[in-house]
Design brief:
5-stranded mixed β-sheet; 30 strands; 1452 residues; alpha+beta; 49 helices; disordered C terminus
Length: 1452
């Protein structure tokens, strides 16, 4: 019972206090609509604002009731994953409707009376707790200095953890009094900590140092504060002469300079905190602490020592009644009150009386603090580290010192006197109720909060372990074998202890296992089966070591592992045990995770049933919970990197040099690959069943036709079931359905070689992969061959009137041609789907044998483990060394092996080409290593395939259009190889030489200086004997100065050999300069990539990489080494469903409904994640886009500003997503008339993009077009031309000479030339554009006509200009000159062009058009539900949605 109470204390104090603060801080959608009503319209910055009413949470004007109805149905908009159907939607539409209403309960206003201030109104919600009002008061400017108080209503003290709705007498207009309470030691410490936080509120040092979830944001530097306060600035912005449009030199197209200092522009608030706004010189704990016994009995709690700005040294006593001056000095203890003592309940009140400078500066500081946007100061859920920082003065800070060196190293401040039981918290949050939406929100919020706290504690602990601050639990063993416990977290190092991984690759396997295990924890956590528990797991890479941090199973340390494990194996399959309860629990996860139940042999040769890999261990803790751990083989092995004797891969793998020897034998397929593969097989399954059903129908129809014509059955002339000989490149194969007729399947092998030769398709997945093996009983083909034939092939009915001709489309889908055939195809698929569902629903006894046989054949063909329904699962133990299978499962094992080979071939022949195709058509646009890795992972491609991906690009005919991708890939490959080498390099470095070693490595990696010599600390070489003694204090060991002998040529040789051995890719370079020359890389980009990957923080200054006379880096340039942390990201499932539904609605053109759903998603995301999260960022971006499309420009600006701030804070100031957010914000600024700000934001985006990936990138064309258009709008024609012509060149390179984007680029350049009156150039460009339009869309198209009209206009202007010039030549000064029209572009026309290039098209529609459109959308949905793919729909109907409505083309 005590444990439960303890947990709920944590739960309420940690999790439920946040929404109120966030709501008060104007964070959109927090527990209620975006903002609240305040009678005085008062907000944080004290400005009058008009708030939306509570009944109108949506920017599109729909009431909350409508939003609820849409929200309630959100689950129904989501199609469950077809192949597993694992998702469960709790509650139907009605229950969800009820649930959302509960959350959006109407708020009311109360009055707050604090000592020394006027009463003020505060909007509250019945669901809130009293604690949340406390937090808001501690943040308000006029009450922020109070921490130790209670709230009283009519003289009764309110319980901090009581919900407002449960308090008797609390209603609209009630007066709550703030009453000062006596201090305790804990309250006094909290007060001092809070005052210190207020004093540091504008200090960026915590963000630079990566502390307390602070991170950097620079948006306000470019917007001069909050964009919302733009009334005055709007007017100013529209006066063109006040705009300084000149970009810095390094931003201009063609500039080779890549400075680093502008990455962190100086914030004017940060300049002033150092001197003018200094409130105190010193605030620290006194050396006289703790108070002696006699003073405790006088109420002394602790002593403080301070130095004011006026150089007054004072000692202060914190007592139960408050704070007062005492008579102690540095060397004499006299705790008696001074005269006067200035007794005050708050430290701020006391200091304000003593120091005039404190009073003035503290007031000014708080004003500035509350004027900052809330998103600039709210903590992020996970720590974000900056790879650059200025040299920040190290100020005295008592709280920081206390945090670092007191017992708090293992304690949490808000839970006095004890460590947190992480395992209990993690598991108890999972056990919370989840029947309805409010319960699920509370549960998900609790899970997310505890996970983010655990990740922070685990990171802190991992660093303490590597820094040598934690004692090992096995101190007598070698350092690499040591294990640690700190703060109730278990830590182990990524080394092969006791040869555990010897057969799997030793240390390499031990290094890979934790990330595999984390992926397993993530997968089981996402399935979320009740009663099955995983450990909290965080993997930290720090100073070259990998540390795994895990929560501790209760009781596991008291017994041997052999006794604890009741399921699985502790020795990789030699001894295996199973357990009924575990089998039941794991079976619930087997369908969504695609894990097959299977038998393995134990040491006694007995069959043991498992529903996971043998390494997965089941342990019942002392708390009675069923835990699973060691989930490193959750997903099946990747045969491309696992050579097995006697097994041969499919031809498409062999062709590419697989299988390859990898460093370890733990290489497994990603979950995304498994999902994609199963989805692919499902489509094959449906197509096969549909084809067979259509063949049956055709056969029946032909018989009926024959009967009606001749009155007697027609003889069936069919050849016997044999494999037809190959002729003219087309193999014709047959499938026999029992006694039914044999229908040849012509498998088309010609690949589409039209526009994108690189784009390999689903059809080619198994092409030339598996030779036809016919079974003896029925003569039916094997799975892969049949699947290939059906997926790619042509169906011809030789005995009936229905002759289907299928052709391959460019993206590999099989399109049925002809209207009647299409309808038949749809009915066949619908029939197949219905059949599959009815078979799955019951025992299928009502289904006729022929139909059952159709499903049976389709199941066999795609490798389903069931004969009656589609169900593909993998056995993760196949090819595991040491695992043996019973003899009776030989056939099954053979099928599983084949399935694994198919999956490996699918990755190589389908997923990699699909990624390249997406890059060619620009639907995937990686900009740096992180976004490239994300693109690979989304398609289930592991990074170890990077060499293969680059080889594929190399062989692609369209390689020129993939140059950006190739360059980013090479950069990623080089920096990953360097990181591998750096990891082992760092392990041999003593802490005192760390900065010297890191700077030496960076010099060898990037500097042109050929003789990089390490600068050893002066005493290190002298005291070798001393070092030898101390060597074992840190994990690892080895010669502590070996790192100093590294040379640039040696490092680059190692990088080249690492690229060959790990990625099987040949690099042609021997130095950094050769890499730059050969592959067009930038050294600054390589520096950024290696710093982020290795956790290095460097001093922000200009580095000279190309000097051949001195090294680039010195040890003073290395400021810090940060941990690189991998952890689970718990998801807000309901919010995500709403967000997806909103996206779907928007893509269908129902903007208002979509807007409501996305507003609802924002509300729910905020409930779960708090104010800061990457998914909230995506939500705000889409909301801003919708606001903009629907004409609400100020709201678009507000939401996008939040999205930019959030992206900077949670992803990083130069992350590619942040660059995109800056571009969107610039567009909305321009639409709001803030031209100067729009330009600054675009210049910032361009600078960041130059730093991250250089100028040669397709996205740069869009950015330069934006900049060029805005400059054109402010009549800076020459500058505008530089950017637009650069965009034209990039578009020409990456989109090809026939691209419509190129035509638009020509048009934009022509417009600027027209404004400059250079009509010849304008004509030339517009003609180019016209030619492209005419060839691509035809002369009748609107765009071609527009271009033609513009050409005529330009010709007239050119003729008029020529006449005028002739007149001047002829008559000199007497010439009568007709005034020429030199039109400055209107803002409206510039904005229209900006919208077009950014993918937003506005087309006015009549009511009739809208009705037709809705009818068309509904028709498409019905057809799609009946099984027809979107590709077929687009072929079938010429209607293009984006041409008919205001549409966001780039929805993401």
């Amino acid at each position: 019972m005590m444990i439960v109470k303890y947990f709920y204390f944590i739960y309420y104090s940690l999790i439920l206090v946040l929404p109120r603060i966030c709501w008060f801080l104007r964070i959109p959608g927090y527990e209620k609509p975006t903002d609240f009503d305040s009678k005085e319209g008062e907000t944080l910055d004290g400005k009058e604002t008009t708030k939306a009413s509570l009944k109108d949470p949506c920017v599109c004007g729909h009431s909350a009731d409508t939003s609820v109805m849409n929200g309630g149905g959100a689950h129904n908009h989501l199609e469950e994953s077809k192949q597993d159907g694992a998702g469960d939607t709790d509650g139907g539409e009605d229950s969800n409707e009820q649930e959302v209403i509960v959350i959006q309960d109407t708020g009311f206003t109360v009055k707050i009376q604090a000592p020394g201030t006027e009463p003020f109104d505060l909007q509250v919600s019945p669901q809130e707790m009293v604690q949340e009002i406390h937090q808001v008061l501690m943040d308000r400017e006029d009450t922020c200095h109070r921490t130790c108080f209670s709230l009283q209503l009519d003289g009764n003290v309110l319980d901090n953890f009581a919900e407002l709705k449960s308090i008797e007498g609390l209603q609209e207009g009630s007066l709550l009094k703030v009453v000062e309470e006596p201090y305790t030691v804990r309250e006094a410490r909290i007060h001092v900590r809070h005052i210190r936080d207020l004093l540091k509120s504008l200090d960026p040092s915590d963000a630079y140092n990566g502390v307390d979830c602070n991170s950097l944001s620079f948006l306000s530097v470019f917007t001069d504060g909050d964009l919302g306060d733009s009334g005055k600035r709007k007017k100013k912005g529209s006066e063109l002469e006040q705009i300084d449009c000149t970009p810095p030199e390094h931003i201009l197209p063609g500039s080779k300079e890549r400075p680093l200092v502008p990455l962190q522009p100086q914030n004017k608030d940060w300049k002033v905190i150092m001197t003018p706004l200094q409130c105190l010189k010193v605030l620290t704990m006194s050396g006289w602490n703790p108070p002696p016994g006699n003073r405790k009995m006088h109420g002394d709690l602790l002593y403080l020592y301070m130095v004011t700005v006026e150089e007054r040294h004072i000692s202060i006593t914190a007592s139960t009644r408050g704070f007062y001056l005492n008579q102690s000095t540095t060397y004499t203890f006299n705790p008696k009150p001074a005269n006067p003592s200035f007794l005050s309940h708050s430290l701020v009140e006391l200091l304000s009386q003593i120091s005039p400078a404190f009073k003035k500066n503290f007031t000014s500081l708080q004003k500035k603090r509350v004027q900052r946007h809330p998103f600039e100061r709210i903590a992020t859920p996970f720590q974000v580290y900056s790879w650059t920082a200025p040299m920040v003065d190290h100020a005295m800070d008592c709280v920081r010192a206390e945090d670092a060196y007191t017992s708090r190293l293992g304690y949490e401040e808000h839970i006095p006197g004890q460590t947190r039981d992480w395992n209990e918290e993690l598991q108890t949050t999972r056990e919370l109720a989840r029947k309805n939406l409010p319960e699920r929100l509370l549960r998900e919020r609790a899970i997310f909060k505890v996970h983010s706290d655990f990740a922070a504690a685990a990171t802190r602990g991992s660093m303490a372990v590597i820094d040598g601050n934690v004692m090992a639990i096995n101190p007598g063993e070698e350092t690499r074998m040591q294990m640690f416990i700190w703060n109730n977290i278990f830590f182990s190092l990524g080394f092969d202890v006791r040869d555990h991984y010897r057969e799997l690759g030793g240390d390499a396997a031990a290094h890979a296992a934790p990330t595999n295990d984390l992926n397993g924890v993530r997968a089981y956590g996402a399935v979320d089966v009740e009663g099955l528990y995983t450990l909290g797991t965080v993997v930290v890479d720090y100073r070259g070591y990998r540390v795994t941090a895990q929560s501790i199973i209760p009781g596991i340390l008291e017994r041997e592992q052999e006794q604890s494990v009741i399921y699985g194996s502790i020795d990789f399959g030699k001894t295996v045990v199973s357990h009924g309860k575990y089998l039941d629990l794991l079976e619930k996860t087997s369908r969504p995770l695609k894990v097959q139940k299977h038998n393995v042999l134990n040491e006694k040769d007995e069959a043991v049933e498992l529903c996971s890999s043998v390494e997965c261990k089941g342990i019942i803790g002392n708390d009675g919970r069923h835990y699973i751990l060691d989930l490193l083989r959750t997903f099946p092995p990747d045969l491309n990197f696992l050579p097995v004797e006697g097994e041969q891969l499919l031809p498409e793998c062999l062709k590419q040099g697989f299988p390859r020897q990898h460093r370890h034998r733990l290489a497994c397929l990603r979950q995304e690959l498994i999902e994609a593969f199963v989805e692919h097989r499902y489509l094959l399954f449906m197509k096969m069943a549909a084809l067979q059903l259509m063949q049956q129908k055709a056969h029946k129809d032909s018989k009926m036709a024959a009967l009606t014509e001749t009155g007697s059955p027609a003889p069936v002339a069919n050849p016997p079931c044999t494999e037809a000989p190959e002729s003219s490149g087309t193999s014709t194969e047959t499938i026999t359905h029992g006694n039914s007729d044999t229908v040849p399947l012509a498998a088309q092998t010609k690949a589409s070689s039209d526009a994108h030769p690189a784009a390999a398709t689903e059809d080619s997945m198994n092409a030339d992969a598996v030779k036809a093996q016919q079974t003896t009983e029925t003569g039916s083909l094997t799975a892969a061959t049949t699947a290939r034939a059906v997926d790619a092939g042509v169906v011809t009915a030789t005995n009936g009137p229905l002759a289907h001709v299928a052709t391959e489309s460019q993206n590999g889908e099989c399109l049925l041609e002809g209207k009647a055939d299409v309808e038949d195809g749809i009915s066949g698929l619908a029939q197949a789907k219905q059949l599959a569902e009815s078979l799955a629903a019951d025992d299928g006894s009502g289904i006729d044998p022929k139909s059952r046989e159709v499903v049976l054949n389709a199941c066999k063909a795609v490798g389903s483990i069931s004969n009656t329904s589609f169900d593909i699962r993998f056995n993760p133990d196949i090819f595991s060394p040491g695992v043996r299978f019973p003899e009776d499962s030989v056939d099954d094992i053979q099928k599983q092996k084949q399935l694994l080979k198919d999956a490996a071939a699918f990755l190589v022949s389908c997923q990699i080409p699909s990624l390249i195709k997406d890059c060619l058509d620009h639907s995937a646009l990686p900009m740096d290593g992180a976004t490239l890795t994300e693109a690979l992972h989304q398609r289930g491609i592991n990074v170890r395939y990077l060499g293969n991906v680059l080889e594929f690009v190399n062989k692609t005919p369209a390689k020129a259009q993939l140059e950006h991708f190739y360059r980013i890939g090479i950069s990623e490959l080089i920096t990953r190889c360097a990181k591998h080498i750096f990891k082992t390099y760092l392990q041999g470095v003593e802490l005192s030489a760390l900065s010297a070693a890191v700077s030496h490595f960076l010099n060898c990696f990037l500097s042109s200086f050929p003789d990089a010599v390490a600068h050893l600390p002066a005493d290190e070489l002298v005291s070798r004997r001393k070092n030898r003694k101390r060597r074992n204090r840190v994990p690892g060991g080895g010669d502590n100065t070996a790192w100093a002998s590294l040379t640039p040529s040696e490092l680059w040789k190692n990088i080249v050999s690492e690229a060959q051995s790990y990625y099987h890719f040949t690099l042609h370079c021997e130095s950094a300069d050769q890499v730059v020359e050969e592959y067009g890389l930038q050294k600054i980009t390589l520096l950024r990539e290696i710093s982020i990957k290795a956790g290095i923080q460097i001093l922000i200054k200009e580095y000279n990489f190309d000097s051949r006379h001195k090294p680039t880096f010195t040890e003073e340039d290395i400021l810090n080494i940060f941990p690189v942390v991998k952890h689970v990201n718990p998801k807000a499932s309901d919010a995500f469903h709403f967000f997806q539904s909103g996206q779907a609605k928007v893509q269908q053109g129902f903007l208002k409904e979509g807007c409501e759903l996305i507003n609802e998603a924002l509300n729910l995301f905020n409930n779960v994640y708090g104010a800061m999260h990457v998914e909230i960022c995506a939500c705000l971006r889409l909301l801003a886009r919708l606001n903009y499309i629907m004409g609400d420009h100020p709201e678009a600006l507000s939401n996008q500003q939040k999205a930019v701030l959030m992206s900077e804070r949670v992803l990083g100031i130069e992350h590619p997503n942040t660059i995109q957010e800056y571009m969107h914000l610039a567009l909305y600024c321009f639409a709001n008339g803030q031209l100067s700000t729009a330009l600054k934001l675009l210049y910032r985006a361009r600078y960041l993009m130059l730093l991250v990936c250089g100028e040669d990138h397709p996205e740069m064309a869009l950015l330069d077009s934006n900049i060029g258009l805005v400059l054109h709008g402010v009549m800076e024609y020459d500058l505008s031309l530089r950017f637009l012509e650069n965009a034209l060149a990039i578009n020409s390179k990456y989109h090809g000479p026939r691209s419509l984007k190129l035509a638009l680029s020509h048009h934009l350049v022509a417009r600027v030339y027209e404004s400059k009156a250079e009509f010849r150039s304008a004509l030339q460009h517009e003609k180019e554009g016209y030619t492209i339009y005419k060839n691509q869309v035809g002369e009748a198209h609107e765009k071609t006509k527009e271009s033609s009209e513009y050409l005529k206009y330009l010709t007239q202007q050119a003729v008029a200009l020529q006449r005028t010039m002739n007149e001047i030549y002829k008559n000199g000064s007497n010439a009568s000159i007709m005034p020429l029209k030199f039109t400055a572009p209107s803002m409206a026309s510039v904005l229209e062009q900006l919208n077009i290039i950014n993918g937003i098209i506005f087309i006015p529609l009549s009511q009739k058009d809208l009705e037709n459109l809705k009818a068309e959308v509904q028709r498409r949905q019905q057809l799609q539900e009946s099984g027809k793919s979107m590709e077929e729909l687009s072929e079938d109907s010429p209607l293009q949605l984006e041409d008919k409505i205001p549409m966001d083309i780039n929805i993401d």
